[in-house]
Design brief:
Strands 4, 6, 7, 8, 15, 16, 17, 18 and 19 form a 9-stranded mixed beta sheet that branches. Strands 10-2-1-14-21-20 form a 6-stranded mixed beta sheet, covered by helices on one side. Strands 3-9-5 form a 3-stranded antiparallel beta sheet. The protein is 34% helix and 25% strand. α1 packs parallel to α8, α1 runs parallel beside α12 and α5 packs across α12. It has 416 residues and is of the alpha/beta class.
Amino acid sequence: MGKDCVVIGGGIIGLSCAYYLQKSGHKVTIIDQSAMNGGASYVNAGYLTPSHIMPLAAPGAMKQGLKWMFSSKSPLYIKPRLNSEFLKWSVAFNKSCSKANVAKAIPAIKAINLLSRDLYSDIRETENFGFQLEKKGLLMLCQTDHMLDEEAHILGLATQEGLPAKMLSAEEVQQKMPNAQLNIKGAAYYECDQHTTPGEFMAELQTLLLNKGVTFLKNEKVIDFEFNGKKITQVKTESGKTISADEVILATGAWAGSLNKKLNLNILMQAGKGYRINSTSETGITLPSILCEAKVAITPMNGFTRYAGTMEIAGINHNINKARVEAIAEAVPRYFNNISITKQEKAEAQCGLRPVTPDGLPYIGKTSKWENLTLATGHAMMGWSLGPATGLLVSEIINGKKPWLDLNVYNPDRKF
């Protein structure tokens, strides 16, 4: 018998949860405090990345973050502040920057990425969607021998995990993109990766869900809950709406803080802001490429090229830091001599907030606090990649089925 499922959060994770829940016969309501047309699910690089096996919390990450703290243009910027949640997260993040965390994370990240990548193809075929889905792989472009060595090491770990990848010389990369004017020493090439135009998929999925009877409550902020014992019975919004719930899925991403307190959850998470610049100029870039030293992602999307990057952990806000936009714009022509990003393109830059856990792994699963609450958040820079897989796993949890993947590593109650 179908349940009344309330999904809080209408980004890629929330929509994916709604998709698989309605497919298995549940009545679904999605509540989102925005108009559901912007944010991280729309401004990301569009990558489906089994290659991204390394968690953000890896040896040396905190040390590097401290070095970059005083540079407004650094790829990773952690703004120090006297906030108890931030301090707890920082301590846990530092503790997680270990070889043990990397060893735990690599197989988990690979498995959920591969599942999610294949589910994008399955959804596209099953629902007759037309969104861009290209299987061209991903280039990790390097300008220094040091970075080439680092990427070769990561590539070695990836190939040990069975992912198809190889190192390329500068000449071999140039052959793959003959119309680009490259300034690199070489690259790692991951044949397993794919890419999309995020806005296309989000629009098609919203339309499908509406047609399937899913209820959308946009521009509605959840402010409270009603309980009966260890069960959430109702979800309350700022405008006065009350929605009955058999199951509640928390997919609010970076905005989960106040709700965590209402639900008495001890969830450590910080908002990581990323930026994007779109350009319709001819670039010669035909393969998704990451500028390794600069940590900037480039994606040839439908009708435009997207430049995306930076991780700014500085609290919840959508303020555009012009210095960080400029850092992306300055990085691109260092690798591609023929590209110049215009003043207008920089002025139209947008940002999105990504939920970052201390160990770089998402929270997926039930929490011991409430019998009918499932968490689906904390995906950091991999939210777009992991959307469909997370939605499938959440539906399996609620349906009482054995999940596709072992969920212990994603346990929301895990200790740091």
